[in-house]
Write the structure tokens for this entry.
Amino acid sequence: MALKTLAEYEDLARVAHGHLCAGQILGLRMALLGLRLLGIDDPTGKDRKRLVTYVEIDRCMTDAIGVVTGCRLGKRSLKFRDFGKAAATFCDLESDRAVRIAARESSKQCALEMYPEIGDRNQREMRAYRELPDDELYATQSVSVVIPAEDLPGYKASRPACAVCGEGINFGREVRRDGRTLCLGCAGEAYYIPA
């Protein structure tokens, strides 16, 4: 299965995300650009094991990137780094190449200049983001990403149990402290507080 048109991806993104917005268009085009720059033309078919994508924000754009790339948290091919930026890095495991793409801050102003007659900001940006050339919408740079073996899709290893809570710990995320194996939560890095 080869890449689809932007319109086809818009339909898929609308279903996956629940609505279509400017962030979705930005993410769809960002993913298409990343794949094109890496020479990956079938990310959900023959190339599905080649790609790992790092997203830097937890907004609409990220869902759209998953629609195009097929990368998912559950497949361990989508990685989230909370930098609060409209950016993503696409990594080709086969060629050991990666490209980081960030949305330009100027894109909102470009949309306003292109379509000042469209009063609804989202509609204005959606239209402009469909039409702006890639180099006006995004900054791109070749980067190097070292992905540890335990973070790769398909990684298998032992699954020790936490000495405190007894829960199993996957992917080398355990902590050794005072001769005991602890999960991150019991080692003091929990994001939750027991009620």
